[in-house]
Amino acid sequence: MKCTEILxxxxxxxxxxxxxxxxxxxxxxxxxxxxxxPKSRNIGHxxxxxFEEYYGNKDLDFLAFADWGxxxxxxxxxxxxxxxxxxxxxxxxxxxxAGDNFYQKDEKLPYNDETDHDGVLSIDDPKWHxxxxxxxxxxxxxxxxxxxxxxxDWYTNVTAQVDYFWENDIRFFFPSLYYSRRVHFxxxxxxxxxxxxxxxxPFYYKxxxxxxxxxxxxxxxxxxxxxxEQIDNRLKWIEDQLIAAQxxxxxxxxxxxxxxxxxxxxxxxxxxxxxFPPLFEKYNVSxxxxxxxxxxxxxxxxxxxxxxxxxxxxxxxxxxDTCGDATWSAPFTFxxxxxxxxxxxxxxxxxxxxxxxxxxxxxxHSGIVHSRKRHEK
Length: 377
Known about the structure:
Strand content: 15-25%
Helix content: 10-25%
Distance between the termini: 45 Å
CATH class: Alpha Beta
Number of helices: 10
Shape: globular
Order of helices and strands: HEEEHEHEHHEEEHHHEHEEEEEEEH
Strand order of the largest sheet: 1-2-7-8-9-10-12-11-13
CATH topology: Purple Acid Phosphatase, chain A, domain 2
Number of domains: 1
Number of strands: 16
Radius of gyration: 19 Å
Largest sheet: 9 strands, mixed
Structural class: alpha/beta
CATH architecture: 4-Layer Sandwich
CATH superfamily: Metallo-dependent phosphatases
């Protein structure tokens, strides 16, 4: 087999950006080796241009989950990791992660305790190994993880998670709190899926309701995401990405906080999260992928909403009840979402439960989503 053929077999993803050559991920590569790092040190500024990805004659096949980096008693990170590894194969292109990447074990300690804390303290924090690198094996070590931040990531040094991408390993793909991707696949790369990865924390938490010692408040202020003008700017950026994506067959928005069922209307979601569903409807978004509620559930598109809302918070954090009023839900359940788009018109999804440590994971709910262009016909 020729060297070029071997590269194609090994390729997980190729990027073309600003004249950069395409590259293939096999081992950790520092982000600054291949991507242009923004001059601004404020990770709250959206990454200035979309990332272009080309997969060629492949299905778009990926796994999605959130609320995973939890190792408290009763948590399920290790069994979910085992189930994820069993479900990945040569077709799996990447992971979509919806935040809460690192939890604290003992919640009686200060959130920023030096040895046991929410989030990470730096790019050299031992939790990179104990919660990520040493837990997810097999194909999970080779493919990209496309990240957003959850509230637990904000309580300490959320900037360190973005810096880890730039300084240590681009597989933890996190160039900014806000970024977009244009994913080309199909026989001639003629099918386009756009992913818009957003940070929902400024839309979910009211800055003026926290005391000065709160980590969320400190970071909202430091990243200048604490006032209405800045939040409106992020909302405009999201809308601009949706406008630019109108040529896409599929549009996915990924954020941490949930919009399944009653979570669209009950507190505290009604702070500013309520702004998202009308925007998603207006621009015919295919699906929103969120977590925060520690279960798996979905509100499927119907006669009153063209958007499917996936809840993928069963990645390992101790169990939780559901949003309520979903099409389907599994409260207090560990698990994740598998999405496959074999051609342009139809997305097939399966929810996989991973509650049992001594039994194989299994599918507990399945469904389909139709492409935007089919809706428009």
